[in-house]
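Incident review: delayed structure delivery

Summary: a single-chain prediction request sat in the queue longer than the usual turnaround. Root cause was a stuck worker, restarted by the on-call engineer. No data loss occurred. The affected request and its eventual output are reproduced below so the record is complete for anyone auditing the incident later.

Affected input:
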Amino acid sequence: MTPAVPPAPVDGAGRVLARVVFPTDGDLDVLPLYVDGQQVPVAVQDGETVLPVPYDQNPDQVIGRRSYRLEHGERASFATYFNAFPAGYWRRWSTLRTVSLRVQTSGEGTLIVYRSSARGTVARVAARPLKDRTDTVVPLGLAEFGDGGWYWFDLVAGRGELVLDTAEWCAGEPETGAVPVREGTVTIGITTFNRPAYCAALLHQLGVADELRDVVDEVVIVDQGSARVREDAAFPRAADSLGERLRVLVQGNLGGSGGFARAMLETLDVGRSDHVLLLDDDVVCEPEGIARAATFADFARTPTVVGGHMFSMYQRSVLHAFAERVAPWQFRWTPSASTEHDHDLSQSNLRSTPWLHRRATADYNGWWMCLIPTVVLREVGLSLPVFIKWDDAEFGLRAAAAGFPTVSLPGAAVWHVPWTDKDDSVDWQAYFHARNRFVAALLHSPFEHGGRMVRESLAIQLKHLMAMQYSAAHLREQALVDVLAGPDRLHATLSTQLQEVRAAHATFDDSRVAADVSEFAAVRPAKPRKREPRTAKPTSHAAVLLTAAVGLARQLTPVPAGSVDRPERELPAADAGWWSLSRLDSALVSTTDGTGVSWHRRDRARALAAARRAAQVHQQLLREWPRLAAEYRAALPDLVGVDAWRKTLDLPLPDDEDTA
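Output delivered after worker restart:
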């Protein structure tokens, strides 16, 4: 395909950075993310104070994707996640010195503009009277937003109805000497595996979004499942909405890293788009956020990875993941400094949440929504071939090492099933959690022996054994053995590793999940006790050590015959931590998502043998860390290179194409 000729660069002045938008489906759960209503008294009229009509969130006031109506005496604030302007992020990473707010209204009222500091303190910036049909432009500087802060505006209706027709935040003056920008375009890459209905719904949402018509060149679906998206009843409508902008590719299941690597490679091969934007197949997106991410990348001082936040699919006003980093000493995912997971914006909005005003720095962004400039791909390579887990974090660290930052941009987000409703560290995915974390650490840890992570990994292994989670312990052990085998296996086993892992996992009793407890033996009657068994997690360091010592000591004792035949207790997932399971010989344990239950039974011989092997493999890993780190780092360019991925994906190399 012949690459399209890119548009000429421009200075960007006046370009729309973010549109004020509203949900049009009447969903009250998400409305607080777009508009915040409050009561205010109306000015004295004819000697009497006129009280406002009681106000609450009302979807009927949303009269269009970009329009909102206020009745006499009502006030609406747009100090909200999707409609306030995150000035601190534009100040830090873009080439702009100023922006402007453009508002078009019909009716009488007042426009009030506010700003916040990084501490969350609020200052009034400007007020403008509104009468009849008014086009208002408010120029705004960015100099005071070095550490964070937002702009937003409120509308107050006067004597009659006031309608917000449109509002948008626009580019102002660029920095002196700033390189001209051009309106870059995007290829959206979606990896899907047996979620055809979700994927078709997402495609239709993208196809009908007006704000994406000039932004999205193509949507590339990499279908790796047996239930094809093309076969879903909703696919024809979705395909019609996208037209020639949709391309569906079918390949074997190579996990998220294999699917997204294919989307990256296709974007580079076509050579048309400036960015590839990765999306999970089971998300609900806010299309305006995609447009904002692309625009932010255009104005960035240096090529920048721009990520979106994650809201909970179940509690849609809950901001599940904001900005994330990798703690270097433990080499673990963690929220960025001064941020929180699972913040409910319907209970504590932007104005009343100080930490949201401080600009957050991210090491990486999850690939539920992440925009990557093609220039970054050409410089640092494609995804690491690790199937699932840690591919996004490793890419962010790799990009940063090459000088390309990651920004998790407020106002760009998707709704996704939160990971708190599942615990994939104890199912077959435990293998990928462990192996890929160590591979990423060998590539990027700044410490000679990986900091604390080897010791911490051994502790995790012992916790699994004390909790009778022998399947997870086995998979983690195998993961470390494979890490020690070196980087050459990553591409070679990408298409077969899942089957091997699942087969190994299925051989353990604790991996069998039944829909109901009645499928297992009944819990044997417990002896009367003066106190209820403790299930609370130990909080102090001393309590953790004491609980661990008691649990480890129990592993040395013989298992009572009765515990082999019948479970001692039935534990809900919330109480089934290592600290409680280590006190038992047998238990029925609910899954985290509540859909099933498994039977955990202590096996003394298995636990002791696994503990010995765990000590040996961790000792070897610690001893050989410097050598392994050098080996993995030397192999990285080939692991993430285009040619290696073409071979794994069974695609022709450029020379093969030329000679064909």
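Verification: The chain has 19 helices and 26 strands.
Action items: add queue-age alerting; document worker restart procedure.
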